[in-house]
Amino acid sequence: MAEDEAQTGRNSSLALERLRVIVDHLERAERDQLPTERELVEEIGVGRRAVRRALDVLEAEGRVWRRQGAGTFISGTRAASAGDVTRLPEMTNMFEVMEVRLLVEPALARLAAPRASAAEIARMDEIARKVASADDLDSRELWDGALHRAIATAAGNTLLLAMFDVVDRVRQDDTWRHVREALRTRGSMSLYVSQHSELVDAIGRRDPVVAERVMRKHLLSLQERLMLQTTEGHADAG
Predict the structure, then answer these.
(1) Contact status, residue 221 vs residue 195, Cβ threshold 8 Å
(2) Contact 65, 72 (CB under 8 A)
(3) pLDDT tens digits, 159-182
(4) Domains of the chain
C-alpha cells in the first residue's frame, strides 16, 4: 500500500511538472487548448488519476480552466519558463533550498497582501482548505505547493515568480521525496495548516507586515523540522 501511494505521488508530481511545460509551450505558441486527458496520459506516460490531480492543481492556481464536454483551456499568461533546472537537485540540497525560500517567499507574501485581487484571495482560501482536508500525502503535497504558488503569483512580480518557480521545481524533485514526506508528520501538518490559515487571513486583511512575518514563521518551522529530521537520521545511522 505504501509503495502504491509512493508511486502515485511520483506519477502526480511528474504529471504536474510535465503539464507546466506543456502549458508554457502552448502559451508561447499562442494556443489556448490542452490535449485531451487521454492524449495527456499517453504523452506523459502516467495514469489518468495522476493527470486529473495535476489538472486540478493547475485549475486551482488559475492557470487552466475546464468545461465539461469541451476540454481544458489555458487561462492566461504567466512568467517565462525558468529554463532547464534538471541538474540542480544534484548540485544543491534541501538546506540551500530553504535558505532561498526564506529570502524569496516572505517578500512574495508581503507584496501579495496589497496586490492580490479578491479572486486570488478567494483562490488561496480555497486551496488552503484543500490542504487541510487532504487525506493522503500526495494530495496534501500538491495542494500545499499550489498555495505557495498562488501567493507567489498574486505578488505580481514576474522576476520573483520566475525565481520561485526555479526553487519550487528543484524542491519537488523526486530525489528528495522521502525528505518532504518526513517533514509532514501528522503533528507538523496540524501546525502548517494553522499557519496557512493565518497567512491567507493576513493577505485577506491587506496586512503586508503580518503576511511577511507569518510566511517567515512558517518556513522556519519547516527548516527546524528539516534540521531535526537530519539529526535524527544521523543518530539512527550511528
Answers:
(1) yes
(2) yes
(3) 999 999 999 888 877 777 677 776
(4) 1-78 (1.10.10.10), 85-234 (1.20.120.530)
